[in-house]
Design a protein that fits this description.
Radius of gyration: 27 Å
Number of helices: 4
Helix content: 55-70%
Number of strands: 0
Distance between the termini: 60 Å
Largest sheet: none
Low-confidence stretches: none
Order of helices and strands: HHHH
Mean pLDDT: 91
Structural class: mainly alpha
Shape: flat
Length: 127
């Protein structure tokens, strides 16, 4: 509304600025009421002695770290033979290997572009 751009609501094509303003005010009021109810419920639970948050956060963090490391190890084990093949062809620099992996269309673990540091990490895992 503040941008000054006129628009038409598909679900309410006859709505005008006043209608939209009223609906926005009602939505904001509802958001505030939800926030107040949530805060009151959390406060009441805390007063009853309920422990808020994840009581096993350290355990969950350890499991997540282990899973992430296992996934990285699997990915490295799959890519390492290709890197060894590239090295055998005469390409020795990390940047050169990164370019060769990209040229072969091999995606990085997260789908980004290859960089020397990623190749180095995989080689370190393979030692």
């Amino acid at each position: 509304m503040d941008s000054g751009v006129e628009f038409i609501a598909v679900d309410n094509p006859h709505a005008n600025k006043l209608t939209i303003h009223i609906l926005a005010a009602v939505a904001q009021h509802e958001r505030e009421m939800i926030s107040a109810r949530t805060s009151a419920a959390l406060k009441a639970a805390k007063e009853r002695g309920k422990r808020l948050g994840n009581p096993k956060l350290l355990e969950a963090r350890k499991k997540a770290t282990k899973a992430r490391m296992e996934k990285a190890d699997r990915y490295s084990a799959n890519v390492l033979p290709v890197i060894r093949e590239i090295q055998a062809s005469g390409i020795k620099s990390l940047r050169g290997i990164a370019r060769a992996l990209a040229a072969r269309g091999i995606p990085t673990a997260r789908g980004g572009e290859w960089a020397a540091v990623q190749v180095s990490d995989i080689l370190r895992r393979g030692e």
